[in-house]
Design goal:
The complex is a heterotrimer of chains A (557), B (211) and C (316).
Chain A: E1 5-7, E2 22-24, H1 25-29, H2 38-42, H3 47-75, H4 86-122, H5 130-153, H6 166-170, H7 175-202, H8 215-247, H9 260-294, H10 301-314, H11 330-358, H12 367-390, H13 392-398, H14 402-432, H15 438-465, H16 479-509
Antiparallel strand pairs in A: 1-2
Chain B: H1 14-49, H2 51-59, H3 63-88, H4 92-123, H5 138-173, H6 183-207
Chain C: H1 2-9, H2 14-47, H3 64-91, E1 100-107, E2 110-114, E3 120-122, E4 124-128, E5 133-139, E6 144-148, E7 153-157, E8 163-167, E9 173-179, E10 191-197, H4 199-208, H5 215-225, H6 228-232, E11 250-252, E12 258-260, H7 263-271, H8 294-306
Parallel strand pairs in C: 1-5, 4-10
Antiparallel strand pairs in C: 1-2, 2-3, 5-8, 6-7, 6-9, 9-10, 11-12
Helix pairs in contact in C: 2-3, 5-8, 7-8
Classes of the chains: A mainly alpha (557), B mainly alpha (211), C alpha+beta (316).
Chain lengths: 557, 211, 316
C-alpha cells in the first residue's frame, strides 16, 4: 500500500465509539474508490460493494426472466401458439417463474438495498458477519450458474411449483438440477436473513432504540425472520422431491404409499411466506419514499412497524389457501380462508397510513414519489383481488386461472418491481454520488404504471371467464385480451430498460448529489454520497425519533 | 492493518462481537430445526396415513443399536458441555481433550450407524441399495425411505460436527484459538453439537419407538 | 367475439349465478375500500404539492382510534362475505344422495367419462338438465383438475384417491371443460365440451351411444376374471369378508377403528389391501396395484356397490 494511511490516534479504550479506525485517504473518500481492481470487488467484505455486486447480478437475472416473459407474451399473440411448441412454452414459463421468484424477487430489495442501507440506517460500519455476506453472494452466483446451465441445457417443464408426482415421476428436463439451484440459492437467503437479524439486534448505534429504527429496517427485520424460518422447509421439500425422482424414494408418490398433497403443504408452507419475503421489503421502501417525499413522519409509526411483524407471523398460517380445490377438508379451507382475510389487515393499515402521511405534507413530485404511488395503486389492486381469491366459493372458480396470474403479478411486479425501481431512483444518488434526469425518471415511472396495467388488467377478465393458467393453446375467443396484454408487455419492456440508460449516463455526466439531495432525515443522509468505506467516521449517537422533519405549528403561521 | 484491535470490522467491543456470534449461531440452529421439521412432518403424515404398517415397520428397527447410539450421543454432549466449561475457565488443554473425546464418541456413533445400515441392507430393508428390496408393504418402504433420509441427513450433520469439534480442539492445542478472547468459538461449536444431539433425541422416538 | 365468449361466461347452474352475484357485490365493497386511497393520493398530491401554499398546520401523526377503525371496519365488512362464500363452498361438499354418478378418469392428456349404463366418452361430458350429477374422479398419473367454467366449479383429481364434485346444470347448451392444474406437455389441449341436454335428448344420447356392457357388468366380469371371486365368492373356502351389502355400511378394522365403506375405502382395499384390514380376517389379500388401471378399479367398485341389495351376513 503506497498510499499514506490516515491514522487516527490509537483506540481510546474508555470510549466505546472509538476503536482506532484506520483507513486510507481514498477509503475515507468513498467506498467506490477503495480499490479499483476486480479483486478488490470480488473479495470485498464491504456491505456496500456486495450490494452493488448483488444489484448487477439481480438485475441481470431480471432481464433473463424478462426475456422468458417476452417469449411467452409473443407466443400468446395467437391462439395456436405459433412461436413455440407446447413443450417449449412450458419450459419458458417454468424458467420465467424460477428465475423471477428465486433469482430476482426474493433477493431483489433485501440483498441490494437492504445490504447497502441497513448498516447505514442503524449507524453501523458493516453487517455483523461481513464474510458471510460475501459468501452469500457467491452461493447466489453458484445457484444462478446452475440455473443458466439448465437454461442452456434445454430447461425444465414442471412450473416453478414443482408439483409432485409430475415433477418427481413424469416430467422430463433437468428437474433435479433446477431443484439443486433453488436449494443452493436458499442458503444464500438464509445467510442474508441471519446476518440482518443479528445486525439489527446487536449493531445499532448508541441511542438507536427499536422505536427509532427506520421502517425500512423494521420491514427487513420481518423479512429476515421469514427467510430464516421458511427457507429450510423449502430446501428439505425439494431435497425429498429430488430424492424421489433420482432414487424412486416414494414420499409423495401415491403408488408407493406417499401423499402428493404433502408436497403441496410443505411447498406452500415456504412459498406463501415467500410472497411476503418479496413484498415486505418493498413496503419498507415505500414507507421511506413517502416520508421523504411528503417531508413528514410516516403516519402511525408503530402501526406500520408492527404490521410488518404481523404480516410475517400470520403469513406462516395461510398456506392452505393455495389448496382450496386440492381436496383438503372443508373446515381446513374455512380456517385458511379466514386467516387469509386476517393477513390483509396489516397490509390495509400500511396503505391507509401511507395515504394519511401525505396529508399536510410538502409533497415533492420527484421520480421516487411517482414510483411509490405506482406501488400503492398497484398493490391495492393486487391486494384486494387477493381478498377475492380468499373467498372460498369464488376461489373454486378462479383458482389456477389467469385471475390468479393477474393478482400476483400486481403484487410482485406492480408492487415489488415498482418499489425496486423506486428504491433505485431514491438511493441512486447515495450509491454513486450523482443525480440523474428527473424528467426521464418521472416518464419511466408513468410508462411502467400504464404499461403494467395494460398488460395485466385484461388477465383479470380472462381469468374470470375461465382461461386456465399455463395454457399454450387457447380458445380463439380469448385472443383480443391476449393481444392487449402483449401490447402492454412491450410498453413495459421499454419502460424497464429506460432507467438503466439514464442512470448509467448519470454515473458519468450527472451532477454531484451532495450528502442529502432529497432533504430527507436518517443516518444514511448524514454521510457523504457515496459513503466512505467505513460509513461513519465516528459512530453516531442517536437522540431523536425517525422522520423528525420540522413541522408547521399553528402558532408559527 | 497491524493496528486493528482484536475485534473484527463491524464491532465496537469484544462483548458485542461475542453476543452477535452466539446469536448468529442460535438463528442458524433455528434454520436447522426447520430443515428437520420437514422430515418430521413427513414421518408424522406417513404415520397418520398408514398407522398399522408404520408401527409394524418400526418394530423391525434395531432399537438396541439406536438406544446405544442415543447414549453415545448424550455422553458426547456431556463432554462438550464440560469442554465449554473448561474453556471458560481458560483450561485450553483440558477443553481440547474433552472436545476430542466428544468427536471420538461422534465417530463411534457413525460406526454404529453404519453397522445398522449394513444390517438393514442384509435384511433387504435399506432403500436404494437393497436389491432386491424385501419390504412387506409399500408403507414400510415409505417408512424406511423417511428413516434413511432422516438418519442420513442427521449423519451428515454429525460428520460436520466431528470436523468442527476436531478443528476447534486442534486450534486450542496449537494456541491459535486464544482463550478467553475466543471462548465464543468453543461455545458456538458446542451449541451446534448439542443441536445435532437434540435432533437425534427426537428422531429416535419418532422412528424406533413408534410402535 | 361475444358469441364465442358466451360458452365460457354463461351461468349454467344456480351455483354459478350465486358465485357471480357474490363476486360482483364483493367487487363493489372492494371498490369502496380502494376508492379513498386513489382519490386522496391525487387530491393530496395536488393540494400539498411542495411550494404550493396550503394550510399545513398541526398535522396529525398518529391516532389509535383512526388507525384501529380503518384496520377493523374493512375486516368486519369482509367477514360478512366470508360467511356467504364459505356457505356456498360448503354446499359443494354435500352431493344429494340420488345424484347421477359419472366416473371420471384423468390421464395425460385426456378426460374419460363413464356413465352408469356403461356409455363411455372422451373429452366430452353429456349430462341431463336439472338433475344432480356427481362426478367420481380418479387420476391415472399426475394431478389434474377438472374445471367447468360455466358452472364456476373445479376440483383437483389427485392420483391415489377419489375426489368428487357435484352440480345441477339448469341450462341446456354446449360449454367448455378444461384441465386447470398443470399436468405436462399437452396440458392446454386437455379439454373439451361440456354438454347439458334435456332429459329426452340425454336418454336418446344414452341409447345411441353403443354400449356392449354396463359399468356393473364389466365390473362383474372383472370380478371373475381377475380372481376376486375365488376368495370373495359365496362358495369360497378362503376366509375373506363377504361383499354383499358392504357399500355404505360400517366396517370394524383390526386397528379398532370403524370406517364407512365408501368408494375410497373399497378402492384402497383393492389397491392397498394391507392398509385397512377388516377385523377378524387374515391380512392375506394381494395388492392389485399393478394389475388394474383406474378404469377397471372403478368398474369393480361399481360392481361391489351394486351388491348392496343382497342381505348381508352379520360378521360381528
Amino acid at each position: 500500500m503506497t498510499e499514506t494511511l490516515a491514522r487516527e490516534p490509537g483506540p481510546d479504550r474508555t470510549n466505546l465509539n472509538d476503536r482506532g479506525l484506520s483507513e486510507t485517504q481514498s477509503e475515507r473518500q468513498s467506498y467506490l474508490r477503495a480499490g479499483h481492481t476486480l479483486r478488490s470487488w470480488l473479495l470485498t467484505t464491504d456491505h456496500k460493494r456486495i450490494a452493488i455486486l448483488y444489484l448487477i447480478s439481480v438485475t441481470l437475472f431480471f432481464f433473463i426472466g424478462g426475456a422468458a416473459a417476452a417469449l411467452i407474451r409473443l407466443d400468446l399473440l395467437t391462439p395456436q401458439g405459433d412461436l413455440l411448441s407446447n413443450e417449449g412454452y412450458n419450459r419458458a414459463f417454468t424458467l420465467h417463474g424460477v428465475i423471477m421468484v428465486w433469482f430476482f424477487l426474493i433477493p431483489s430489495i433485501p440483498n441490494t438495498f437492504g445490504n447497502f442501507l441497513i448498516p447505514l440506517m442503524i449507524g453501523a460500519r458493516d453487517l455483523a458477519f461481513p464474510r458471510l455476506n460475501l459468501l452469500s453472494w457467491y452461493i447466489y452466483l453458484l445457484g444462478g450458474l446452475f440455473t443458466l446451465f439448465v437454461l442452456i441445457g434445454g430447461g425444465v417443464d414442471t412450473g416453478w411449483t414443482f408439483y409432485t408426482p409430475l415433477s418427481s415421476m413424469f416430467a422430463n428436463g433437468h428437474v433435479v438440477l433446477v431443484a439443486a439451484a433453488v436449494f443452493i440459492v436458499g442458503f444464500s437467503s438464509i445467510l442474508t436473513g441471519l446476518n440482518f437479524i443479528v445486525t439489527v439486534h446487536k449493531l445499532r448505534a448508541p441511542g438507536m432504540t427499536w422505536g427509532r429504527l427506520r421502517l425500512f429496517v423494521w420491514s427487513h427485520y420481518a423479512t429476515s425472520l421469514i427467510l430464516v424460518l421458511a427457507t429450510p422447509v423449502l430446501s428439505i421439500t425439494l431435497a425429498l422431491m429430488a430424492a424421489e425422482r433420482l432414487f424412486g424414494l416414494g414420499i409423495f408418490d401415491p403408488k408407493l404409499g406417499g401423499d402428493p398433497l404433502l408436497f403441496q403443504h410443505l411447498f406452500w408452507f415456504y412459498s406463501h411466506p415467500a410472497v411476503y419475503i418479496m413484498v415486505l421489503p418493498a413496503m419498507g421502501v415505500v414507507s421511506e419514499l413517502v416520508a421523504a417525499a411528503a417531508r413528514k413522519p410516516v403516519f402511525g409509526y408503530w402501526f406500520v412497524a408492527g404490521s410488518s411483524i404481523a404480516i410475517a407471523v400470520i403469513g406462516f398460517l395461510v398456506w392452505g389457501h393455495h389448496m382450496f380445490v386440492a381436496g383438503q377438508s372443508m373446515y381446513a379451507s374455512a380456517v385458511f380462508s379466514f386467516l387469509s382475510l386476517a393477513v390483509a389487515v396489516p397490509s390495509a393499515i400500511k396503505v391507509y397510513n401511507w395515504t394519511a402521511t401525505l396529508q399536510k405534507g410538502q409533497i415533492a413530485l420527484d421520480p421516487p414519489f411517482f414510483f411509490a404511488m405506482s406501488f400503492i395503486g398497484l398493490f391495492v389492486i393486487g391486494g384486494l383481488t387477493g381478498l377475492i381469491l380468499s373467498m372460498l366459493a369464488i376461489d373454486v372458480h378462479v383458482h389456477d386461472t389467469y385471475f390468479v396470474i393477474a393478482h400476483f403479478h400486481y403484487i410482485m411486479v406492480g408492487g415489488t418491481v415498482s418499489a425496486y425501481f423506486g428504491a433505485l431512483h431514491f438511493w441512486w444518488p447515495k450509491m454513486v454520488g450523482r443525480t440523474y434526469s428527473f424528467v426521464w425518471g418521472r416518464l419511466s415511472a408513468i410508462f411502467i404504471f400504464f404499461g403494467f396495467n395494460l398488460t395485466f388488467f385484461p388477465q383479470f377478465i380472462l381469468g374470470y371467464l375461465g382461461m386456465p393458467r399455463r395454457y399454450h393453446v387457447y380458445d380463439p375467443a380469448f385472443q383480443v385480451f391476449h393481444v392487449l396484454s402483449s401490447a402492454g408487455a412491450s410498453i413495459l419492456a421499454i419502460a424497464y430498460v429506460m432507467p438503466f440508460a439514464y442512470l448509467l449516463w448519470s454515473m458519468r455526466y450527472g451532477d454531484a448529489a451532495g450528502p442529502n439531495p432529497w432533504g430527507a432525515t436518517g443516518l444514511e443522509w448524514t454521510v457523504p454520497s457515496p459513503p466512505p468505506k467505513h460509513n461513519f467516521h465516528t459512530i453516531p449517537v442517536v437522540t431523536e425519533q425517525p422522520y423528525n422533519f420540522p413541522l408547521e405549528r399553528k402558532e408559527d403561521g | 492493518m497491524a493496528d486493528r484491535v482484536d475485534v473484527s470490522e463491524p464491532f465496537q467491543a469484544p462483548a458485542q462481537q461475542r453476543e452477535a456470534a452466539m446469536m448468529g449461531m442460535f438463528v442458524f440452529l433455528g434454520t436447522e430445526i426447520m430443515l428437520f421439521g420437514g422430515i418430521f412432518t413427513a414421518i408424522f403424515v406417513a404415520r397418520l396415513l398408514h398407522t398399522e404398517q408404520v408401527v409394524e415397520a418400526s418394530k423391525r428397527m434395531h432399537v438396541f443399536i439406536g438406544g446405544i447410539n442415543t447414549a453415545v450421543l448424550l455422553t458426547s454432549s456431556l463432554a462438550v458441555a464440560l469442554a465449554v466449561h473448561s474453556a471458560r475457565a481458560r483450561k485450553a488443554r483440558r477443553s481440547a481433550a474433552l472436545l476430542a473425546g466428544a468427536a471420538l464418541l461422534g465417530l463411534a456413533f457413525l460406526g454404529l450407524k453404519a453397522f445398522e445400515y449394513w444390517e438393514e441392507y442384509r435384511d433387504g430393508l435399506l432403500p436404494i441399495f437393497s436389491d432386491p428390496p424385501r419390504f412387506s408393504t409399500p408403507a414400510e418402504h415409505l417408512f424406511m425411505n423417511l428413516y434413511f433420509l432422516g438418519t442420513g441427513l442427521h449423519a451428515v450433520h454429525v460428520t460436520i460436527g466431528i470436523v468442527l469439534l476436531t478443528g476447534v480442539a486442534v486450534r486450542l492445542v496449537l494456541n491459535s484459538l486464544r482463550l478467553p478472547d475466543r471462548t465464543v468459538v468453543v461455545e458456538a461449536s458446542g451449541l451446534y453439537w448439542h443441536l445435532v444431539d437434540v435432533i437425534w433425541v427426537f428422531l429416535y422416538p419418532a422412528l424406533y419407538l413408534a410402535r | 367475439m361475444i358469441d364465442q365468449l358466451l360458452p365460457w361466461a354463461s351461468q349454467a347452474s344456480t351455483h354459478a349465478s350465486e358465485v357471480d352475484l357474490l363476486a360482483f357485490t364483493f367487487l363493489l365493497l372492494i371498490a369502496l375500500l380502494a376508492a379513498p386511497v386513489f382519490i386522496l393520493i391525487v387530491v393530496f398530491a395536488v393540494k400539498y404539492r411542495r411550494g404550493r401554499p396550503a394550510d399545513r398546520s398541526d398535522p396529525v401523526n398518529r391516532s389509535i382510534w383512526i388507525e384501529t377503525s380503518w384496520a377493523m371496519i374493512p375486516f368486519i365488512l369482509t367477514l360478512a362475505f366470508f360467511v356467504w362464500a364459505t356457505h356456498l363452498y360448503a354446499d359443494l361438499y354435500y352431493p344429494p344422495a340420488d345424484a347421477l354418478e359419472v366416473d371420471v378418469v384423468a390421464k395425460q392428456w385426456m378426460w374419460k367419462f363413464e356413465h352408469p349404463g356403461g356409455q363411455r366418452e372422451i373429452n366430452e361430458l353429456h349430462v341431463p338438465v336439472n338433475e344432480p350429477v356427481k362426478l367420481i374422479m380418479a387420476s391415472q398419473d399426475v394431478i389434474h383438475s377438472l374445471f367447468i367454467p360455466a358452472l364456476r366449479i373445479k376440483r383437483d383429481v389427485v392420483p391415489g384417491r377419489y375426489t368428487t364434485m357435484w352440480f345441477t346444470a339448469d341450462k341446456p347448451g354446449i360449454y367448455h371443460l378444461t384441465c386447470s392444474q398443470f399436468c405436462g406437455t399437452d396440458h392446454s389441449l386437455m379439454g373439451g365440451r361440456f354438454v347439458v341436454m334435456t332429459k329426452a335428448d340425454y336418454t336418446r344420447w344414452l341409447e345411441e351411444s353403443g354400449v356392449d356392457q354396463s359399468l356393473v357388468d364389466r365390473g362383474a366380469a372383472l370380478f371373475r376374471s381377475k380372481g376376486c371371486s375365488g376368495c370373495h365368492g359365496p362358495s369360497s373356502t378362503v376366509h375373506a369378508p363377504p361383499l354383499e351389502g358392504l357399500f355404505g355400511s360400517p366396517v370394524p378394522l383390526q386397528s379398532g377403528e370403524v370406517v364407512t365403506a365408501d368408494e375410497r375405502y373399497i378402492r384402497d382395499s383393492i389397491l392397498l389391501p394391507h392398509s385397512q384390514v377388516a377385523a377378524g380376517y387374515p391380512d392375506i389379500m394381494p395388492t392389485f396395484q399393478n394389475i388394474l388401471d383406474e378404469e377397471q378399479v372403478m368398474e369393480l367398485v361399481a360392481y361391489i356397490k351394486s351388491l348392496r341389495t343382497a342381505p348381508r351376513k352379520e360378521t360381528r
